[in-house]
């Protein structure tokens, strides 16, 4: 049966986000859920069977449906659904950051060619309206930097390690049980999910199409109590921070790295599954947005906001994309020339690659472990990063003002407190 306004939505997926959307839609009497398409026929669901279909085409070819919400975790399946909907000139809302970030050029072209609409606020920072802010508010004003905590699961884990001292595996299990983590949590803790999100932010904030291999990326999966205690002894906390910023040569620099932050940074105060995004605009100056970055209802709320906006005719205008003569999106040059200060703890010291460090201080040396603080050119770190990661290393960026001497002294304090 149709509601008064006659709008009908077809939903793909009934996991954490699909369920969340269904819940929040109960507040909206003007929208009917046509059917929900799921894969697993045997799984116990919170709704009776007649709400579901197992055939995507049943929804995609239903002319009575006004728009779709694609909320499945498989990026390949999600791409097929979104492509077909856009080729039919339909409106679709998605939360699949991996699929969208890896296929953005095609998805923008499909909208231009067939007149359909794709919105994906829920794909980036859960309930924080970051894409709408970048599009609608900063569409014209040049941005200098957008950075922040973009993954709720890894922030939840880091918060628990810091505040409660529970084990990494226990904290990860909690993030999974609370519905924050991806089906494959490597995407969260390895920094891939954050990379997908900063790529989408870079597109809307700087008009940049980013190749993943251009981005310096490390995750939190090898963090230990020692690293957490060291950060605490320095008066800081470790957070997984993504950065997209223009350097002095007006070139874009991108990275996803565990980073030591101090109480004077907004990011220090972003806890549990919350995300936080810092914007630096040429004229508006600094701005900070904070909100729940993961979870069923916060993400469902972001999908709902997109659904409402799409029904009102809203589309992204991609104001910062630069087109080349062929009319295609082109990558913005990424530069890797500046220097970074890096902390490394590796449990396979014998396999550490010879990196071209500018400065290097080694400490905590034992048979099975080594810690070091060094400065290195971003370009060199990017070149050697995969070899470094093979040594089961935890890698974090230190602010330039933190000296190697301070880190060594703090590691002694941390050791004494642990004893
Ligand atoms: N796994 C994601 C996170 C879900 O933890 O942030 C929201 O994108």
TrEMBL record:
InterPro entries: Asp/hSer_DH_NAD-bd (IPR005106), HDH_cat (IPR001342), HDH_CS (IPR019811), NAD(P)-bd_dom_sf (IPR036291)
Domain (Aspartate/homoserine dehydrogenase NAD-binding) ranges: 13-121
Keywords from the UniProt entry: Amino-acid biosynthesis, Methionine biosynthesis, NADP, Oxidoreductase, Threonine biosynthesis
Enzyme Commission designation: 1.1.1.3
Presence of keyword NADP: yes
Domain Homoserine dehydrogenase catalytic: 129-307
Family: Belongs to the homoserine dehydrogenase family.
Protein name: Homoserine dehydrogenase
């Amino acid at each position: 049966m149709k509601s008064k306004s006659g709008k009908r939505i077809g939903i793909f997926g009934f996991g954490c986000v699909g369920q969340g959307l269904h819940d929040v839609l109960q507040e909206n009497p003007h929208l009917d859920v046509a059917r929900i398409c799921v894969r697993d026929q045997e799984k116990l669901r919170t709704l009776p069977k007649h709400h579901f279909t197992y055939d995507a085409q049943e929804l995609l070819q239903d002319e009575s449906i006004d728009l779709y919400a694609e909320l499945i975790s498989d990026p390949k399946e999600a791409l097929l659904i979104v492509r077909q909907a856009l080729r039919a000139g339909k409106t679709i809302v998605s939360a699949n950051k991996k699929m969208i970030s890896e296929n953005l050029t095609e998805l923008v072209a499909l909208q231009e060619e067939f007149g359909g609409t794709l919105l994906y606020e829920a794909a980036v920072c859960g309930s924080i309206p970051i894409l709408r802010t970048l599009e609608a508010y900063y569409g014209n004003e040049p941005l200098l930097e957008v950075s922040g905590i973009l993954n709720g699961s890894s922030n939840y884990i880091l918060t628990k390690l810091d505040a409660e001292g529970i084990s990494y595996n226990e904290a990860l299990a909690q993030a999974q049980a609370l519905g924050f983590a991806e089906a494959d949590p490597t995407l969260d803790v390895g920094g891939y999910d954050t990379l997908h999100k900063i790529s989408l932010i870079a597109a809307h904030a700087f008009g940049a199409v980013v190749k993943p291999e251009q981005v310096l990326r490390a995750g939190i999966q090898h963090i230990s109590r020692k690293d957490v205690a060291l950060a605490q002894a320095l008066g800081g906390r470790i957070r997984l921070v993504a950065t997209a910023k223009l350097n002095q040569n007006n070139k874009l620099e991108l990275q996803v790295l565990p980073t030591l932050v101090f109480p004077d940074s907004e990011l220090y105060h972003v806890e549990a599954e919350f995300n936080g995004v810092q914007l630096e605009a040429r004229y508006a100056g600094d701005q900070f947005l904070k909100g729940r970055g993961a979870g069923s209802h916060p993400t469902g709320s972001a999908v709902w906001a997109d659904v409402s906006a799409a029904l009102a005719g809203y589309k992204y205008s991609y104001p910062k994309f630069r087109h080349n003569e062929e009319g295609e999106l082109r990558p913005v040059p990424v530069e890797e020339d500046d220097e970074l200060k890096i902390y490394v703890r590796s449990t396979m010291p014998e396999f550490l690659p010879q990196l071209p460090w500018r400065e290097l201080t080694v400490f905590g040396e034992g048979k099975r472990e080594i810690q070091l603080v060094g400065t290195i050119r971003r370009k060199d770190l990017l070149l050697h990063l995969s070899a470094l990661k093979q040594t089961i290393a935890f890698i974090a960026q230190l602010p330039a003002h933190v000296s190697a001497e301070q880190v060594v002294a703090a590691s002694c304090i941390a050791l004494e407190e642990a004893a």
